[in-house]
Amino acid sequence: MHTTFSPLCLAVTFACASISASAQQQALTPDADSQAIMPTLEVIRVVGESAPVLLEQTGSVVVIGRKQIEQIQPLSTEDILRRIPGINIKSEEETAIVANFGIRGLSASESKSLLLEDGVPVAPGLFIGNDRYFNPRIQRIEQIEVLKGSASLRYGPSTIGGVVNYQTKTPDDGVKLTGRAGSFNMQELSIEAGGKNAAEDAFAGVVATYAKSDGFMHKDYEMTDVMAKAGVIFGNDQKLGIKVSRYENDANISYRGLLLGDYQRGEDYNPAPDDYFLTDRTAFDVNHEWAISDTAILKTVFYWSEMSRDYWRYSVDTDASNEAGRWVYTDALTGNNRAFERQGFETRLNLDHRLFGMDTNSEFGLRFMQEESNDTRIRAIRSADRTGINDRHRQDSANSVAAYAQSRIEINDRFAVTPGVRIESYEQKREILSNSSASANTSNTEVLPGVGATYDLSDSDQVYGGVYRAFSPATNGVALDGLADQQLDAERSTNYELGLRGKKTDITYEVAAFFMDFSNQVVTGNSNPNLSQSNAGKTRHYGMELALAYDIGGGFNIDSNATWVPTSDFETGSNAGNRLPYAPKIVANVALRYQADALNTALSVHHRGEQYGDAANTQDIPDNAAGGIWGGLMPSYTVFDLTTQYNIADNLKVFGSIKNLTNKQYITGLRQGIYVGPERSLELGFSYDF
Questions:
Q1: Would you state the CATH architecture of domain 2-689?
Q2: Taking Cα atoms as reference points, which of 507, 579, 596 lies closest to residue 540?
Q3: What element of type H or E holds 633?
């Protein structure tokens, strides 16, 4: 049992505009009719860009709405995330089948941030591990919210970097058909269909997508994603909603990338042509909202998901690969096949009340969750058609409970303070079933206090800041490695943030300074195999995020942001003084847009600074087929994208894009070889409303 509690104090005197809870609820509601039948329990409730909403957040918040998503014309969620300040992407292929991103100097090959869909965890295993294996499809996404700093205290676990929440679409009345095609024989067709009853107190809708492609570097995929929603509002101030989804994807991707010589020659073949990553996921959420009174709202969600991930990879002949300068495969085939199941319950009570004579909005939450995984390893040969002997069978499970309380106290018309505390308690178990049954377990409780504040300098300018404790659990494969409690501490970090945001006539700006002080960080085999079974020790991360938007006039505007992280370093252990892998010092974005009547076009630029591939800060990328995790210094790169939309009629729109306009060759990541960023590609599409 590992238990930690450290009281935190905040020495800041900044604050916010006075906004009553009723005004807050109104500001958060984009449309009265649609909200009345909105089924999803939106645990993270940040909607739109209105000043009252953003001025209540004690940390930096970015909201990307449907209009912005459609302008970017993304193939994946990572196409959006890489444009958000503070986020670095480690792309493995163009549709982001698995999630690879880091926030504020945290390694993009490790997950320290919580990924949600409609407020519900979607990563397969938050406590048991393998949380990268499912990433929501961009075609179902209405809005993306990113919360950092003390604003993320309400959620957990793994909120050290922050929280990313994908809000899904709720189809309007009628039918919307969207199709596009492009380079690499990419073809995609989506349909949104929905309807309300005559009284407009019930609705049902579906969002479905089918896509396939030969893929950049011939990494083909075939994907189907279907999501259905239904909801009803009752006369006694209660709402009930349900969301059901089914996802399948067969993707020709692998851990292996190009060897150095072939990368330098610009080769574009698939380095693992017979390896396949096969996933399917079924999930449902049932949620309920009850307006108990004018000052009390209770929201509850039950969720369940089941996912399988079969990863079939061929073994290599290392000597033959060295001689050939590319991977040479044998007939030995391994299926690392895992199935995950999660069920959970979460309820949140929101109250408007007076505390010590001051207007206060308080929220109390409780969550129960159970996770299980079944892990098998199938040894086969090429001719056996993915059948063979299961030589490793293990089951992981975790039961967790979390509770939190938070109050936003309006000291005066300008100043508000938001103290809170979260408690996460969990028990992990691993069972080995291969030969004789054996098991081990461990448990942990984390107490996570924090406080944030906002100070309103004017009607549209505000200082904000906070300090909070965050943690990320050591997952089963690490904490119970060797079927023994490894006595690993959870990753713990004390996070500080101070920011300024606002708007002056045609300029919108935000500047935030942050500092993350890890008392312990665990870096797994994704970045360094030598750290997979030990505490990596203290690390320190600090830097700044800057965002600036300017309406130039004449239909032109410019958006820009930059993240500067001068320090993201190990402070103790064998890698003391080294920089964390996948943590560039500079990431920046600039977009120049033009809009006139029916035309909307944009030229966007993304720059990522150089970064290391391993914790040892290896300088040279290996030029042979040595096994293990690869290191090396990946050069900086800059890519340009051009996107255009044209509204032919109110119900018909055409769009197109040229991505990687200059055909830049660049490295996105290293593992067993070099992951290459997609070359220049062209896409054309349409959207038609019936």
A1: Beta Barrel (2.40)
A2: 579
A3: strand 633-634
Please check whether residue 258 is in contact with residue 267, taking contact to mean a CB–CB distance below 8 angstroms: yes
DSSP per position, 421-469: EEEEEEEEEEEE-SSS-EEEEEEEEEEEEEEEEEEESSSSEEEEEEEEE
Q: What is the pLDDT of residue 246?
A: 97
Task: Provide the token pair at 371.
Answer: 């996770």
Judged by average pLDDT, the poorest of 228-242, 487-501, 558-572 is 487-501
Three-state SS string over 140-201 comes to HEEEEEEECHHHHCCCCCCCCCEEEEEEECCCCCEEEEEEEEEHHHEEEEEEEEEEECCCCC
Q: How confident is the model at residue 256 (pLDDT cuts 50, 70, 90)?
A: very high
What's the CA gap between 18 and 4, in Å, rounded?
A: 35
DSSP class of residue 481? G
Report pLDDT digits (tens) over 13-25.
Answer: 222 322 222 332 3
pLDDT tens, residue by residue, 437-463: 788 888 889 999 999 999 999 988 999
Interior CA angle at 582 toward 576 and 585, to 5°?
80
Rounded Cα distance, 474 and 129, in Å: 8
Amino acid in position 427 = E
Please name the residues in contact with 333: beta carbons below 8 A apart, sequence gap of 6 or more. 312, 313, 314, 315, 379, 380, 381, 382, 384, 386, 388
Note every long-range contact of 171-177, with CB atoms under 8 Å and residues 24 or more positions apart, other chains counting. Answer: 171/205, 171/206, 171/207, 171/229, 172/34, 174/689, 174/690, 175/689, 175/690, 176/687, 176/688, 176/689, 176/690, 177/687, 177/688, 177/690
| Amino acid at residue number 643 | T
Q: Where are the chain's structural domains? A: 2-689
**Cβ neighbours of residue 565 closer than 8 Å, sequence gap 6 or more:** 104, 105, 541, 542, 543, 583, 584, 585, 586
